[in-house]
Amino acid sequence: MAATTQNGGCLARCPQKSHITPLFGNRGAAIFYTLPEKGDTYASAVSALEKHFTPKTKVNVVERYAFRKRAQFPHETIAQYVLACSCSSCRFEDKSDDMVRDQLLERLLSDSIREMLLLESDLTLDTAVTLATQMEAAADQAKKKVFRQRCFGQGNSSTDCAL
Hints:
60% helix, 2 domains, rod-shaped, mainly alpha
């Protein structure tokens, strides 16, 4: 449409609104007359047509579906998972932090961390990440401590040492 409105284009040579529909044929006229805001002038008619034929930016449904299905992998830390969710191209705009926080709560592997986060009032993404990573680190330290006690305690063989 932009090319036809340049100097020398057919629309530039026909500055009357009544000349627009014959230029597009029957199908073009049908489209034009179904537009909600055709306008009363040639300029407003051209604007309405350009608005109609300009490609719309679509929210990518497939991207949002993939975002919603994305769960934390067993080898993935909470920080890595949140980063992966934050990098999605879902275009949540000003709701992005809320969507990532909700995704963290819903698809987190650890039920105990989820339960603790759900007890928080006014939970923000920053608070959720801070608390969840602290609990994750504490659980990892406890696991390592049990491992060291089992492996390096008195009378244990190296075959008992499996993390």
